[in-house]
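Weekly modeling sync, notes
Attendees: S.R. (lead), two postdocs, one rotation student

Agenda item 3: backlog of single-chain predictions. S.R. asked that every request posted to the team notebook include the full sequence so nobody has to chase files. The rotation student volunteered to paste the first one in as an example of the format we agreed on. Action items at the bottom.

Example entry:
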Amino acid sequence: MAPHATQNCMTILRCGSCTTLHAPETACCSSCGGANLESARCSGTGSIVSWKVVEPLDDGAQDDSAVTLAIVELDDGPWLYSKIEGSFPDCPEARVRVAFRSTAGDDGFPVFGICAA
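Predicted structure, as returned to the notebook:
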């Protein structure tokens, strides 16, 4: 299940039994083991935990720009995999906010942009 956003609102999962919040890829609650997970709105903001710049393969593809993949800790608690849009900040603990865009070849990663200082 990919993270998704509708009407400029990002959603994650909440356990219907114990209310623990989870990343969208979660299959069951890590706190109580329950499988009753429901969609819940989240702030869409967080901090970068880890990142890696992935260079394109030299296979003649049209999109030959590097992509920054990251793990973002949402202010709501869960961590999730994402793409970081724009230039990467000097401070690795930079604040990020989800950016709502539809992109060709969507791979399921939410796109986050660096928040202004």
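Discussion: group reviewed the output briefly. The first strand starts at residue 4 and ends at 6.
Action items: rotation student to repeat for the remaining queue; S.R. to check formatting next week.
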